[in-house]
Design brief:
alpha/beta, Rossmann fold, 7-stranded mixed beta sheet, 3-stranded antiparallel beta sheet, 5 helices, globular
């Protein structure tokens, strides 16, 4: 199966084999992608990407205008509005399905109107069979508290149905007894942060509104 990875980061939605193309604007991150997928083509700007043929296009489009910590501009924002570019790449490649990812706040923002607009963008482009589900990395054996909205939009209903199958929980790979006595949080938010979670760390990010790194901290005891 041929697929294209957009807004790739260091890789997350990719399959166990290399994509035809990765698209990532950060030059340092692209170096990681080049090392991981030497056979793929690597592009920097999704607005200029002319996609090859593919069956799937996957991408976690920017959340800065949707996140509760962002500016709340929604899909009208310059970054989160790039959803339209993700869909353009999909239609240009002839893909039958799109796998998209963003923050769960998209479901709630402006009483759901932003999510409704997102669904209309997919449907208007021909991807009218749409399913979505909120998943957390900790459900898959990773010690990280990271909920994300996964959307599958397809021209064929059979590619949407796997979203609704039961999740088989995986046991964390770390020692369970140790997890009960440790909690993760953002040190820039203090121990009363909403991200304070026993046994897990919050999502890793590279910056904060303070202009300094906001790496996850671990609280023992």
């Amino acid at each position: 199966m041929k697929y294209i990875s957009c807004f790739s980061g260091i890789g997350g939605l990719e399959a166990s084999w290399a994509p035809e193309v990765t698209c990532e604007i950060d030059p340092e991150v692209r170096e990681i992608l080049k090392n991981r997928y030497p056979s793929s083509k690597h592009w920097d700007d999704i607005s200029t990407l002319k996609p090859p043929s593919a069956e799937i296009v996957a991408g976690g489009w920017p959340c800065q205008d949707i996140s509760i910590a962002g500016q709340q501009a929604g899909l009208a924002g310059a970054r989160s509005g790039l959803l339209t570019e993700l869909i353009r790449v999909a239609t240009g490649s002839g893909a039958h399905s799109i796998v998209a990812e963003n923050v769960p706040n998209l479901l709630r923002m402006r009483n759901g109107s932003e999510f409704e607009h997102s669904l209309k963008c997919f449907s208007d482009a021909g991807y009218r069979y749409i399913g979505w589900r909120t998943l957390n990395a900790r459900e898959f054996g990773l010690p990280q508290n990271r909920s994300r909205l996964i959307i599958v939009a397809s021209r064929d209903p059979k590619f949407v149905s796997p979203l609704f199958r039961p999740i088989v929980s995986a046991e964390p790979t770390t020692n369970l007894e140790e997890l009960r006595h440790a909690a993760g949080f953002y040190w820039t938010a203090g121990t009363h942060s909403i991200n304070y979670t026993i046994g897990y760390v919050p999502a890793i990010k590279i910056g904060s509104s303070l202009g300094i790194a906001s790496l996850p901290a671990v609280h023992y005891g």
